[in-house]
Specification:
45% helix, single chain, 385 residues, two-stranded antiparallel sheet, alpha+beta
């Protein structure tokens, strides 16, 4: 765990043995399982890093004919570790400063890059990534490069579908969870095809909602897409039936601006679901229960009853029973009436004004008109039985 501070395995073993109570070279050699020479070399380097101090038990160190301190006996040198919270603080601060300097240099390089973008060959503004492994790496790199926001359109096929690419508990991509915990916001439009075949409301999408992902649902989205801030985007070049084989990386350009605006148009038309999945349901205190809120949100997506039951983790019969129970509670005899009455009570998710992107924040001076809210009665009516 200390490799990040440039300690090699032997140095780590020796320091941890000191923390556990070993004090002499002989004791350290036995605890670390390495030769006395390697122990002494490790101790010398740890002393230079101010991680270890040494003293003689009788006030005078014994040395052999070669000038080496005695490894045992009454006068053997003894070593004590500096308290970890003190010892490593200076190293951590130095490493953080190094990272800050590196980040500033990268920002300087990025500014130089942007300054010369206008004169670049148009072919350099896009980059073709071929092969599933390369696409996966690019997806991870794009997310890690974000400074404020990731926007995405999620639909099949999936490059990151292997079990070893997903968190075993939540089903999320680990990179997304890491970035969200660092404060990067995510806005994702999920295609209903992906919900029917790959994602689960009670697992990965629900876990993302708990971390703060703002998710919406739409049928028949035109393409997959991933955008980091307003700086870079990733879209498929062409997709095999069951595998994402190649993608296009789009750098700052008119094409990137179009993709960002295209996402916002779709975002305004998609149906929000996150607040229901995470338990943040609006409305009066006597509003829907968490189960009822999720059921209502699912009804607006247009998915079949069988798929909605699977998303809720219940059987088809249980789904029907809950649906009819909700209809009875609201005094509705049809799904159309259910949608109307749920909407009138504020129980259905509503779209909100589109958040400004970085480019819009810099250039826009007039207020934007909020995107129209979906007609929940119509969506509930059109939900398949």
């Amino acid at each position: 765990m200390l490799e990040a501070l440039d300690l090699d395995p032997v140095q780590q073993q020796v320091y941890e043995a000191l923390v556990d109570g070993a004090v002499t070279v002989n004791e350290l050699r036995a605890a670390a399982g390495v030769s006395a020479a390697r122990v002494r070399a490790a101790l010398a380097s740890l002393e230079k890093l101010n991680l270890v101090g040494r003293f003689s038990a009788d006030g005078a160190s014994r040395v052999d004919g070669a000038g080496n301190a005695d490894g045992g006996g009454k006068g053997a040198e003894r070593y004590l570790p500096v308290a970890p919270e003190i010892a490593f603080e200076s190293l951590l601060l130095a490493r953080e400063e190094e990272i800050h300097r590196t980040r500033r240099h990268i920002q300087h390089l990025a500014a130089r890059f942007r300054a010369h973008t206008a004169g670049r060959d148009p072919l350099e503004l896009v980059e073709i990534v071929t092969g599933r492994a390369a696409v996966i790496r690019q997806v991870d790199q794009l997310q890690r490069s974000a400074r404020a926001e990731i926007r995405g359109i999620d639909r099949p096929p999936y490059a990151n579908s292997d079990p070893d690419r997903l968190d075993p508990k939540t089903g999320m991509m680990p990179v997304q969870a890491q970035m969200m915990r660092r404060g990067i916001s995510y806005r994702v439009i999920y295609d209903t095809e992906g919900l029917a075949t790959f994602h689960r409301f009670d697992k990965d999408i629900g876990a993302a909602a708990e971390l703060g992902e703002d998710a919406r649902v739409m049928a028949d989205t035109p393409t997959k897409m991933l955008i980091a801030d307003d700086r870079i985007a990733l879209i498929p070049l062409r997709a095999a039936p069951n595998e994402l084989a190649s993608s296009v990386v789009v750098h700052p350009s008119g094409l990137l601006e179009v993709l960002c605006e295209f996402f916002e148009v779709l975002w305004g038309r998609a149906l929000p679901i996150s607040e229901y999945l995470s338990g943040r349901r609006p409305g009066a205190p006597d509003g829907p229960s968490p189960q009822e809120a999720k059921l209502l949100a699912l009804l607006t997506t247009g998915m079949t009853d069988q798929v909605m039951a699977r998303q809720l983790g219940i059987s088809y019969r249980t789904f029907q029973r809950r649906l009819h129970g909700l209809m009875e509670r609201l005094g509705a005899t049809t799904r159309f009436q259910l949608g109307v009455r749920a909407a009138s009570l504020g129980w259905l998710p509503q779209t909100q004004s589109q958040p400004q992107t970085q480019t819009q924040t810099q250039t826009q001076t007039q207020e934007q008109t909020p995107a129209p809210a979906p007609d929940p009665a119509r969506t509930a009516k059109n939900a398949p039985s």
